[in-house]
């Protein structure tokens, strides 16, 4: 019987607000927001080595900042135009290996990630003109071309919805709450996330199954007020999920 345990289990000081994965280096980047002290910090995880490259990184703007993307060993961060503005302005590039700053430019803003590099624009110039930039140096390479600079689609698998009547046989003793089941198959394993009721209180569970056994189970959240979104994503063979919104679990399946 195969059983799994996390290759990495790490609790952060705040809510894991956003995750992204570097398709080239398989680095997981995290944006962590702590509303109590109004601090946004960032972390980078080397998935192949199950190693935390850095954590607790903050910019000079400790709250009004966030993550744009991570690619080719570089994490791009953004700022906001103001406290009540969703508009992004400015970019800081961080080396995901050690958390050192590579470059910053407060006139640029991020548009999207192409297969040839990040597509940025100067917020001080109208009309908006898009350029492909070197993500390591920040240098503008050339004007963006919709034909040659295809958008980069990252190979991150997200679960599908599974009707309650199709719940795997190994879990048929469980009555899901709300009928909301998330499901994904990988390497002959089935990954399932669902909600249950315990004395009227919602809980969210994660299961990894083979044909005959429950290989892993984890109570991800309890005492929650409403059904939660999908609890996991998959990149290559790494199953990535959150526990209590602040704890990262990584399994290799």
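-> sequence recovered:
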């Amino acid at each position: 019987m195969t059983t799994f345990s996390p290759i990495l289990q790490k609790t952060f000081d705040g809510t894991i607000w956003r995750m992204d994965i570097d398709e080239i280096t398989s680095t997981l980047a995290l944006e962590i927001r702590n509303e109590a002290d109004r601090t946004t910090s960032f972390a980078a995880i080397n998935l192949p080595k199950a190693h935390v490259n850095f954590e607790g990184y903050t910019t000079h703007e400790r709250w009004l900042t966030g993550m744009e993307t991570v690619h080719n060993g570089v994490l791009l961060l953004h700022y906001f135009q103001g406290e009540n503005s969703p508009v992004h302005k400015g970019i800081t590039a961080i080396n995901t290996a050690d958390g050192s700053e590579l470059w910053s430019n407060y006139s640029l803003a991020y548009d999207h990630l192409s297969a040839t590099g990040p597509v940025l624009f100067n917020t001080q110039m109208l009309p908006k003109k898009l350029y492909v930039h070197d993500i390591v140096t920040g240098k503008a390479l050339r004007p963006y071309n919709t034909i040659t600079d295809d958008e980069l689609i990252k190979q991150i698998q997200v679960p599908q919805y599974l009707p309650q009547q199709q719940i795997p046989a190994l879990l048929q003793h469980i009555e899901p709450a709300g009928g909301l089941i998330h499901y994904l198959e990988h390497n002959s394993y089935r990954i399932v996330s669902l909600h249950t009721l315990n004395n009227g209180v919602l809980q969210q569970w994660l299961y990894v199954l083979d044909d005959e056994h429950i290989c892993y189970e984890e109570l991800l959240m309890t005492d929650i007020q409403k059904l939660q979104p999908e609890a996991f994503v998959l990149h290559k063979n790494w199953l990535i999920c959150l526990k209590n919104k602040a704890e990262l679990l990584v399994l290799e399946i």
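The radius of gyration is 20 Å.
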